[in-house]
Amino acid sequence: MTAAVEFILLAGFLGSGKTSLLVDWLALPEAADTAVIVNEAGEIDVDGAIIAEGGTLPLSMMSNGCVCCSLTNDLVFTVRALLEDRAKAGLPPFRRIILEGSGLVRPGPVLRSLSPLAPLGLRVRVVTACDATRMGALLDEFDEVAAQLAAAGTLVLTKLDLALPGPAEALAASVNPLALRVVEADRAARARAAFGPAPPVDLPEPPAAPAAHPHMSVLRATFSADATWEDKLDWMENLAAFCGDRLLRVKGFVRQPGVAGGMLLIQAVGTLFSPPVAMSGSRPEGLVVILRDLGAAELRSMDPGAPVRISVYRAGDGLACQPGDSEASLTS
């Protein structure tokens, strides 16, 4: 059976080193089965021109504005065209398609726009380039940076020749403890870690003493023993409606009563929830919720009577996947 094509959204604020990271990857032999879509917010597609200098890879350029703000049909059409042209040429499917978003991209709307491609079963993930020299300042000023950091499955620290990685890595871990963090000075090794085989789904331990950012909250939601499946669905639906664009990421496990095994992997980027995935083995129930400009008190006030407990996500909470658990897929 042919493996599903992986769709990687490469995010990162203006000047974060996204294009350099992508060019480093495309120089490696492992990138041979990669197609690239470049989305520039300006009329002159500088990044696309830089990448095109690297060789004869399949490259599509979208210069109709930031893809999360423009008509989503353009992205869907571009992805379909890449896949169809590949098949017409009698070549095997791409292993991955990388969309380099503009510096202002918000991952949630982009992933939501891919819903017409659900029958293709794309495996979707977000890689975010993080400028180690100014991550804190950018996070203070731009909501887009918070969205890009929190949505990532992989956070890649860049410009490590200009800054010590410790403070930036600690900040990244406090904002998004769910992500794999790539802290690698060697450019080729950094690119391999960013775009190579996806790591197993994991909910790693958060930092023992997280340097909490004043605009960001990483919370844990656990349901009471008497909560019904309908209670859980209602609470997650209310969560998306109540938080809106302040909801950046949700990930964890929810038990579905009456089903053998019964544990489901729940994931969301922004308010877009992926289809639940049945999990094998035993693991504690709970959701990690990453929010901007909302804290535990506000989240409790959303539905005071709901059978759920809200607390700060701390080391030792023990939400963890097993090796081999599947990553989120865009499926029908």
From TrEMBL:
Q: Which InterPro entries match?
A: CobW-likC_sf (IPR036627), CobW-like_C (IPR011629), CobW/HypB/UreG_nucleotide-bd (IPR003495), P-loop_NTPase (IPR027417), Zinc-reg_GTPase_activator (IPR051316)
* Transmembrane segment boundaries: none
- Superkingdom of the source species: Bacteria
Q: Which UniProt keywords apply?
A: Chaperone, Hydrolase, Nucleotide-binding
Q: Which residues form the CobW C-terminal domain?
A: 222-301
Q: Does the keyword S-adenosyl-L-methionine apply?
A: no
Q: Which reaction does it catalyse?
A: GTP + H2O = GDP + phosphate + H(+)
Q: Where is the CobW/HypB/UreG nucleotide-binding domain?
A: 8-164
Keyword Chaperone carried by entry? yes
What family does the Swiss-Prot or TrEMBL record give for this protein? Belongs to the SIMIBI class G3E GTPase family. ZNG1 subfamily.
Q: What does this protein's UniProt record list under function?
A: Zinc chaperone that directly transfers zinc cofactor to target proteins, thereby activating them. Zinc is transferred from the CXCC motif in the GTPase domain to the zinc binding site in target proteins in a process requiring GTP hydrolysis.
Q: What is this protein called?
A: GTP-binding protein
Q: What organism is listed for this UniProt entry?
A: Roseomonas haemaphysalidis
Upper classification of the source organism reads:
Bacteria, Pseudomonadati, Pseudomonadota, Alphaproteobacteria, Acetobacterales
